[in-house]
Design goal:
about 70% helix; about 10% strand; about 300 residues; 3 strands; mainly alpha
């Protein structure tokens, strides 16, 4: 998307971070024999699967239009992004809640806490690198908008998912480290259980917000308000157009459909009118490269 962030770069950084964390957890599980750390290894590998699903979605979304899909496959990325949000809710959030409640009911002292603290510290560093790369791409897309405003208005589903996932993972690791240290210092394993429940609640909240945003894209949203305003201003400034009556846009993955109804300045010659419309459409697609389809309807009654 023109003016958008590089989603693929953000996804690859997140994939690398999650894989590195999974390896670190696996090594810790091997040396400590901790079943909890082994479960966390599987959890991090599941997070890697989420990034692979997003890459698959981007690949499918780039397929050219076909007779069955005349507007292309761009919205495929919305499906895979929504699936990742569901997995974040279930595999991440609900599993963490279950683990936390289980630890509350059956508290056990933390063994080899320094291994857990070391892995979590490494995880925070890795996730911070991933988050920094994600924010770099988000900042290219959000302009002068706040992060919350960008999150609500963005039409890059995969970037929204990666941002939410990185944010939840980074804060989750920080909560986990604090919980482990408190449990080790006080000797009270309940801190570990509380930390796990907090992480589960955080993942569920983030997953719900991400799912809400992606669901809106699945249903069919216009381009983001800032881009819509730019397209409207472009059309209003065209010398061939006397008045824009209506403008409808539809975001289809990284491509856009535009439908315009306008009163043209040329009202008598059909050939000249057609030439004006073609000129405006060519200029529109040149100024807004994401516009793949445009439908222009001259309004004769407004004359």
């Amino acid at each position: 998307m023109a003016g958008g962030g590089d989603s693929t770069r953000a996804i690859l950084f997140a994939l690398g971070a999650n894989f590195a964390i999974a390896v670190a957890k696996g090594v810790a599980a091997f040396f400590t024999g901790s079943s909890a750390m082994l479960a966390e290894t599987v959890h991090s590998l599941a997070d890697c699967g989420n990034q692979l699903l997003l890459l698959l979605g981007l690949r499918q979304a780039s397929k050219p239009p076909s007779p069955d899909y005349p507007l292309g496959y761009g919205k495929a990325i919305y499906f895979w992004s929504f699936l990742v949000a569901v997995m974040l809710f279930t595999v991440g959030g609900m599993f963490s809640l279950y683990e936390g409640i289980h630890k509350l009911q059956n508290p056990e002292p933390i063994k080899h806490w320094y291994w857990a603290a070391g892995v979590l510290t490494f995880g925070i560093v890795a996730e911070a690198v991933s988050m920094r790369a994600c924010l770099f791409e988000v900042n290219k897309a959000r302009g002068d908008r706040s992060l919350w405003q960008w999150f609500r208005e963005s039409r890059q589903a995969e970037l929204v998912v990666i941002f939410g996932e990185d944010l939840a993972a980074l804060f989750g690791l920080v909560f986990a480290l604090i919980a482990v240290l408190l449990a080790a210092v006080t000797g009270n394993p309940l801190w570990d259980a509380i930390g796990t429940i907090t992480i589960g609640a955080l993942l569920i909240v983030v997953a719900v917000f991400v799912a809400i945003e992606v669901k809106a894209m699945l249903i069919g949203q216009s381009v983001d308000p800032a881009r819509q305003k730019q397209i409207r201003e472009f059309l209003d400034a065209r010398p061939e157009i006397a008045r824009v009556i209506s403008l409808i846009t539809l975001q289809l993955g990284n491509e856009v459909l535009v439908s315009v109804q306008a009163q043209m300045r040329e009202e008598h010659s059909v050939l000249a009118l057609t030439d004006q419309i073609n000129t405006v459409e060519r200029a529109l697609k040149q100024s807004f490269p994401e516009v793949r389809w445009s439908f222009f309807e001259p309004d004769h009654k407004a004359a």
